[in-house]
Amino acid sequence: xxxxxxxxxxxxxxxxxxxxxxxxxxxxxxxxxxxxxxxxxxxxxxxxxxxxxxxxxxxxxxxxxxxxxxxxxxxxxxxxxxxxxxxxxxxxxxxxxxxxxxx
Length: 103
Fold this sequence. Notes:
Elements: H1 3-8, E1 27-33, E2 36-42, E3 47-49, H2 50-58, E4 65-70, E5 73-78, E6 93-95
Parallel strand pairs: 1-6
Antiparallel strand pairs: 1-2, 2-3, 4-5
């Protein structure tokens, strides 16, 4: 098995990998509350809830993510590309207390 074969293994963890539209935005920050991700900051400055992020990603409105789930909760997960610095967990956090939708 070569490196490319191993790189495909994480793709099995996704429930859905939507095709992004040309107008799709990037996630540039994470909104956290109590250490948990509750939302995302997009490249156009919008801040959206985790649930809205999943819905937008399913609609092709967010680049570079797939849909996964834990128990009954869907969430976004960065598509593996061999780069660590663009994983969602590597993105800066945005304080939930500063954003009205998440207080």
